[in-house]
Design goal:
The structure is a homodimer of 429-residue chains.
Chain A: E1 17-23, H1 25-28, H2 36-46, E2 50-57, H3 61-74, E3 77-81, H4 92-99, E4 104-106, H5 108-121, H6 127-130, E5 134-136, E6 140-142, E7 151-156, E8 159-164, H7 168-186, E9 194-200, H8 204-210, H9 212-217, E10 222-229, E11 232-239, H10 246-260, E12 266-267, H11 272-283, E13 287-291, H12 297-302, E14 314-318, H13 321-328, H14 332-338, H15 343-357, E15 361-367, E16 382-389, E17 392-399, H16 404-423
Parallel strand pairs in A: 1-2, 1-3, 3-8, 13-14, 13-15
Antiparallel strand pairs in A: 4-5, 6-7, 7-8, 9-11, 9-12, 10-11, 15-16, 16-17
Helix pairs in contact in A: 2-7, 3-4
């Protein structure tokens, strides 16, 4: 028996079916990757709305009309993104007028917003831009602080239809500032429970073998999902049945943590780089990188955290051997005897960067990203990763599979695992 | 009248409706961004197959069954990704057995492939892994060189259903090596025509204003789309009607090029970084970067090109002022008089990196990425970008909008525009 509790202001309902329609030929053709719908799914999920269905359709009027119409038969909330630009290929607004059988109204607030934006940018407000203030007569305006095309909120007897522009930053702004406040006012939903952890450098099949007994004992109503990418696996526990109490759910997650021990890399939906950066910041551990094959990717991932300048003076990409020698103090005879892709060079680079930038933690990479440059002895994918912490040095050798991009991501994750090891942290918070 | 020409071996058809279904709660919840379907759309598009519809559904058997069933009523080819892992939450294979009303067969070739993979990795082949060789009896195997779960090809009176794993690298491998050869053997389709160009640092609304006469004169059957991201706009011309000849299509694209002149940054679906890297490689122009606020992002984008080591010795992230002084020769009095975020410091950094690494082209950035650190005089988003080429230096000041990530992407694109300017290239090939 379900025991969800509902506290609804306006509506009482057992589940608010929500669906996303993304509009754009560029999405079907694959010229643009849709990141909006994942973001919306995550954000709405935090507030108890579950996306049941996503679909992508072309910029054709007939396709848009039939998609909205179909969606309204199966979902109470329909969120549409895309096709609201000032250019001729954007027809969503006109199509919505047709669907809701209405004309246009001019929104004075939008005009004032457009004037302010263009004044700030020191640019001329064109006739084309003013079209953004012409909205379907029956919609309410969802203010868009981040851009020129406002969101639109429609209601009919079947439910709610919301249309937003396709530019990611504008979707985020409208959703957080205008859409979610309105949705959560209308519906008050029970909390959805998810908890996740990330493992690094452990194969999905090994994990699943090891977690077989755990999974068999999981209460019905809690499910475990494996989400692998580039040498990491995210394990996500979800409460699928509201009869499971929060405390039983927490216990199940704690059992999972116990089962995996220090093989858990980090928690709370963080990615490994974020978890490392935050930890280093909290402890005031200064760091730098000396990267060859990863070309600065590791430093760039680690310096995304606001405030990182307190512990990150800078870093070096040392691609050419002469840079390794001159900037990092790698020995020429070492390069000749062992080659640039070697244990001893990785070690010297990690030590060298600590000295150069006077930091406590140094990370180095030297390897063969491919596609060419491999030999029998040193094949494409071979990489040595070094970390130096307070004078101690660990170097690890890996053979990464995949193309150049995969090589870089996998090497970065392997480096993060090595950092956690040398810092002797059990689980990153 | 349509003048498409068809040369079909097996089937004669006017349009092969193709549809993608991606399976996975993680996609609906937004924990994973679906990059597969964009890639498939692009790849199949090159061979004349057009994706009409994409949908994303959960890992529930009933949802999978009804999605396949619906898709088969409206599309001849249905491509499914996801849900083929060795873990319990992956149910696609069992569901396909149900849909096609069949049992399992063991694929000996897949077993041998699994043995080879695990031997190469020096890992133990587990019972769990062998499950991957159990396939629905009625499907044909699509070999997966890159992973353990093979693709599956089903045919019934309604058309073709293909199931592939969700791991991007495996989708690419199966599609290129097994799926496309089979599809192109079965259908021979007319060429789809797309051509695109990219502009950098020109607003979409200004472009569309400028191209109004061009668009009005475009022949019916050719459409122009605007795809903006981070200070770039991709303009894509598509032949939507086969009565348009290739030569008329080419003429229309050439007119677009002429209209925009040197405001065209690059062609051929390249992104600006790729176009710059390839150009520098082709001319043997050595380069390096000294980045503050962009943290090595620009160097990392430019060094993705295979073979880049010939012209890229390495680069520096100079976050702290003392690194700017010590490593790049920025003057202390300059930092005191003008601050780190200034025209003169950007200029000194660009010159300094050229000297340090003995390269012809140096790129520097210094700015305030935010979210904090801004003042009235130097607000968040302010950035100075310097480029130095053969001794000549240009510095440009920008105010970027958006968060830290957007700041970085926009600054990188502004830097690419400045590189094109100093190199005096009309349009990057």
């Amino acid at each position: 028996m379900h025991r969800w509790k509902y506290f609804c202001n306006t509506m009482v309902s057992t589940a608010i079916k929500t669906e996303i329609i993304t509009i754009g030929d560029e999405l079907l053709l694959g010229q643009t990757i849709d990141t909006n719908s994942a973001w919306i799914g995550k954000k709405l999920g935090e507030h108890g709305f579950t996306i049941n269905y996503k679909s992508t359709i072309s910029d054709k009027e007939s396709d848009i009309l039939s998609a909205i119409s179909l969606a309204q038969t199966r979902s109470e909330i329909v969120l549409i993104t895309g096709g609201l630009g000032p250019t001729k290929d954007d027809i969503t607004k006109h199509t919505l007028c047709k669907y809701f059988n209405c004309g246009y109204r001019t929104d004075e607030l939008v005009i004032r917003h457009l004037e302010a934006i263009f004044a700030q940018r020191g640019k001329q407000l064109l006739e084309t831009n003013l079209i953004q203030a012409e909205l379907p007569a029956v919609c309410e305006t969802l203010f868009n602080r981040a851009g020129t095309a406002p969101g639109m909120w429609f209601e009919n007897e079947q439910g709610i239809v919301v249309s937003m522009p396709g530019v990611p930053n504008e979707v985020y702004t409208i959703t957080e500032e205008s859409l979610l406040p309105r949705l959560t006012q209308k519906y008050s939903l029970p909390k959805v429970l998810h908890k996740s952890l990330v493992t690094v450098m452990i194969a999905e099949s090994l994990l699943s073998k090891r977690l077989e007994p755990y999974e068999s004992n999981l209460p019905k109503g809690i499910s475990l999902a494996y989400l692998p990418t580039f040498n990491t696996v995210k394990l996500r526990l979800t409460r699928t049945d509201a009869s499971i109490t929060e405390s039983l759910f927490d216990t199940s997650f704690n059992n999972l943590l116990q089962e995996l021990g220090s093989d858990v890399f980090c928690l709370n939906d963080q990615d490994p780089a974020q978890a490392i950066s935050k930890y280093l910041l909290s402890k005031g551990i200064t760091f730098s990188t000396a990267e060859s094959c990863t070309g600065g990717y590791i430093a760039n991932k680690l310096m995304q955290e606001p405030g990182i300048s307190a512990i990150f003076p800078g870093s070096l990409v040392a691609y050419a051997n002469e840079v390794k020698v001159r900037e990092l103090g790698v020995k020429e005879e070492d390069l000749i005897a062992n080659g640039a892709v070697s244990d001893s060079v990785a070690s010297a680079m990690a030590r060298g960067i600590c000295e150069k930038f006077n930091v406590k933690l140094g990370i180095s990479t030297t390897g063969i990203a491919g596609p060419s440059g491999g030999t029998d002895e040193k094949p494409v994918g071979l990489v040595f990763i070094g970390v130096c912490y307070n004078g101690e040095i660990i170097v690890k050798k890996h053979r990464m599979i995949g193309n150049r991009e995969q090589f870089t991501h996998r090497t970065a994750n392997a480096a993060f695992a090595l950092i956690k090891q040398i810092l002797q942290v059990e689980v990153l918070p």
